[in-house]
Structures are given as C-alpha cells and as structure tokens.
Amino acid sequence: MRPARFTDFVIDVVKNQPTTGRVQSLDEAGDSTHPYGIALTLQGGGRETRWQFTGQLPDGAKHEGFTDEPVHGTPVPAGPAPQAGDEPEAWLAAALALAECPEVADIERWSTRPDPGAQKGLTVTFHNGARIFARVL
Asked: Strands 121-126 and 131-136, how do they pair?
C-alpha cells in the first residue's frame, strides 16, 4: 500500500474510533512539508499528534511499473480497542490492528524494539512485501 492510499485508509479507520476527536490529512491541517500523513486529536481535550507516512516498495520492485494492487492474507490479530489515555504509538497500532485489514501482515511499534530509540512510530508491513513507516512528528 502506497503512502497516499495508506493515508486515506488510516483516516477511514481512525474516524470510526470512539475516542477520536478529530482526524485530517496533514495537508488539510496546513502541513505542506510532509506529503502524506495525518493530524489526530483524541476526545477529551487531548493534544494533536501528527504522523508522517513514508513507504518502501517490496524487495526488488521498481517505482516504474509498480501497481498498488492489494494482496490479501491473514490480518494482524485484533487486540483491545485503543483508549483515549494510550500513548499515540500504542493508540494508532491498536486502531490499525482492530481494523483487521487483510492487506496488513504485521504492525511493529518502534518503542517495543530491543533497542528502541527516542523516535516513536510504527512499521506496517503488507502481504505484498511493501512497508509503511509511520513516525510521530
């Protein structure tokens, strides 16, 4: 899934979560620096979190001629619903897993890696081998 389609997908998933206050694309939020991503505010007066999305094609694929055709497989297991008090990284990972999208093969939270850095974000791997890197701005 390319970043443009992923942005639309995430907006659709997130807007249906009960704890979402507001979600819009970064462009709609006035950010012209980052072409793909969202601005998300949770209910209850939470602060806005901005996410930038960048993509990586499957190994060996070239931009020229690559089509963003969905490849389906077993979705990531859905866990508990995201809660308003969750950290942004945990909240978005939970929302994406709960969507049970058959294109998504794995969701990795950067903060749970063996040697996590200070940057918060997710790596979303798709069944076609493509990846989206979602980082908190």
From this structure: antiparallel
